[in-house]
Amino acid sequence: MGSEWGSLTDVPGIKVGQVERIGDGWLSGVTVVLPPPGTIGGVDVRGGGPGTHETDALSPTTLVPTVDAVVLTGGSAYGLAAAGGTQRWCEEQGRGFPVPGGVVPIVPAAAIFDLGRGGDFAARPGDAMGYAAAAAAGGSGDGAAVGRGNVGAGTGAAIGAGAFKGGVGTASLRLSGPNSSVVVAALAVVNAAGLPWAGPGPAAGRTAAPRDMFGGAGEGLNTTLAVVAVNAVLTPAEATRTATAAHAGMARALNPVHTLADGDTIFVLATGAMALDASAHGPVAAMIELQSAAAEVLRLAIADGVASATAVDTPSGRLEPFAPQGTFEP
After folding, report:
1. pLDDT in tens, 233-248
2. pTM tops 0.90
3. How far is CA 250 from CA 154, 255, 267, 284, in A?
């Protein structure tokens, strides 16, 4: 994997900022995705143990359809405080829904469970780290490289119920034919209960997860988070449906997925730079192609996050990168 697979910032106007702390009890961080003003948002939460903030604001039935930033953070529910720092930065920039006297930034967030992996249960992201990640995103250039592996919200990530190191991954694709200018990209924070599928089918070693995978201390310490971005025009309902469709990519990448012990959440951001061209096969076919690409690019981003993770020593032992038995094909 790597940079040749593209990144979330291949969608024009999308910026990413990441901060982390390692050592002195810390192994955690924050990833902030900053879209251009007017970006439409959607979300779909499938995991049974989510830690989220302001996801209800992204419902197609609510007042404000746009998103000012998305925060992905470590620290479980405690780490959601990082959203306040990002909101504060957005307010300083005048980004938000106009109200009498100022603006209210719309900043949905989701968290992974990495509490205590650095040794100190209280060492988790908060307001200051959320502000710093937003400032890093705001200060980055268009199309800037996105860090992978043990960075941002992926710093303390693990997979296989805490057995192997997880991390941040990203990828991008283009649609075909008349929509070849449409970019669909994803960024994933892989902290899954499950493990990557080994190969494309049973003959290559695809098997069910071991029955005892979740019987130890790793139970409950999971979640895969993702942001899928497109430069197409989508309504809030279409963005939400695209988030739903993208979960198929998560299921192709990890086994098991969407468990009671995961908080699996996908955000979708549509910058609205160009309308989908439906002249070839109609609007339904164009939307199906986009949503199929959303699932595939998320599968690639998750594989990239697993492949980019590097070993880390924790107080409870060493987390090594995942070394699949058989064939692991991104």
Report:
1. 999 999 999 999 999 9
2. yes
3. 16, 9, 13, 23
